[in-house]
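Students often ask what a 'structure token' actually looks like in practice. Rather than answer in the abstract, let us consider TraX protein, a protein of 199 residues. Its sequence is given first.
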Amino acid sequence: METYPQKTYDEKTNFIKWLAILTMTIDHIGAYLFPQYIILRIIGRISFPLFLYTTVLGTQRTRNFKKYLFQLVVFGIISIPVTLGRINILFALSLLALSIKDKRFFIPCLIASYFVEYGIYGFLLGWAIYWLVSKDRTLGIIAYLVIHLAVFPSIQMYALLSLALILFHSYPHVVRFPKYLGYTYYPLHLAVIHLIASL
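Now compare that with the structural description of the same chain:
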């Protein structure tokens, strides 16, 4: 279980949120604008586990879980037009958050995860991170590694790199991450990328 002083916790989550946004943007630029540069997609593999990590922490620390979940779902719906109709990452994060908050929803959320971005792999990876953060660090790490055996030898294996970032304790101080940036940035950056790709 992670037990940090509040200042250390804030600096870590703040840095990871910025890093998740940055690597996600690089990933989508690679996917839609420069698919020939595989390195962009490799860098982008780091982002999803970091979003799972911040969702685990957000679910545990929010004072109003219903509002937290509502925001994930609403911005997921808003993002559908710019994700070409795909059931995007925000729905994957919503299922993880709901199943962590109320364990009775674990099986329904596991089944539903088959239909969202990253599928069952993403859902179980989120739970491995939850165990790493909140239950048993060693078992969480083992689960994280085992889950990635299932995606070997795909490019998603590079998501293993994010484990070191999650485990690392000391992060540099960066500008505070705006409260609603994560929700609004997702559809907006995709819209801009799609617009550029269509030119």
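One point worth highlighting: The radius of gyration is 16 Å. Ask yourself how you might have guessed this from the sequence alone, and why that guess would often be unreliable.
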